[in-house]
Amino acid sequence: KAKGAGRAGYVYFDDAMTAQVQNDAELIHDLARALQNGQLSLVYQPQVELASGRLVGVESLLRWRHPQLGDIPPGRFIPLAESRGLMTEIGLWVLAESCRQWHAWRAQGLEVGHMAVNVSAVQFKGARAYESMLEAVEQASMPPGMLEIEFTESAFVEVSSETLRWIGMLSERGVHFAIDDFGTGYSSLIMLRQLRAHKLKIDREFVKDMLGDPNDAAIVHATVSLAKTLGMTVVAEGIEEAAQAEYLMGLGCDIGQGYHFARPMPAADILERYGPGAAR
Ligand code: C2E
Ligand code: MG
Ligand code: MG
Ligand code: MG
């Protein structure tokens, strides 16, 4: 895969791969300027308590609108940003903007609950990582206890002792941690053991066919039990049907997120739907 080219130093390509690489290089070139050009934005997806349907938080999700290519999915550009050293700057912006938005909603009379922010492991690197992230939270005067960091792994980055110390310090300030996409990629039992996170998010991959596939159902069941035994709160991603929400609630899953409840949407739509003016 072309993605490996950066790390390996060199790779031999066939024609199809060459096109992919040029494309990557162009995207990276444009992505490096996307932030200052105002092409990045955030949308927010509600997270609801399954038992009551009540809004308990939102997750911020990054969007990139390229002037020629249109919307580029995060699954495409975030791994590029991570591998080419762009994610530190972008990630700090995401954190600052998410906190700013939380505060803006509050000023408009809307308490959304916690703000969940995706953070790549690469953002934990570097001597100033801890200070600059805490600064971003404090500058927005958001209570650290309302921030939840979703630890997102798209590539294996060793959870170093420095990262763990950093996470410990943020935890002491009241920041919560969630292990994202549990059971896929590199988000595994090792992370569960090392991170001592407050929440575990079951990936949509297991939720989507759970009602028809006994194996998936067993995996979800076991994951909820495991997380509960460890004293964690469990969030299920990608809930698209009422029957899935009910089933998950029966297993003891606490929080749900997915199109069944709400799609990711701009901040103004969150205010309209859940704010003081909303019809209930
Ligand atoms: P994620 O953190 O697991 O986020 C959930 C993804 O599932 C989002 O995709 C969301 O739009 C999608 N989703 C939510 N409910 C449903 C549903 O019911 N059905 C289906 N089919 N999909 C649903 P999105 O926004 O494309 O983001 C993809 C991934 O990109 C995220 O997965 C996260 O890993 C990463 N990402 C997004 N924003 C950021 C960011 O600011 N920083 C970092 N480091 N990663 C981010
Ligand atoms: Mg997430
Ligand atoms: Mg997730
Ligand atoms: Mg996921």
UniProtKB/TrEMBL annotation:
Domain of life: Bacteria
UniProt keyword terms in alphabetical order: Membrane, Transmembrane, Transmembrane helix
Presence of keyword Membrane: yes
Gene Ontology biological process terms from the UniProt entry: signal transduction
GO CC entries: membrane
Keyword Membrane on entry: yes
Domain EAL, chain residue ranges per copy: 24-278
This protein's name: EAL domain-containing protein
Included stretch of the parent chain: 674 to 953 of 953
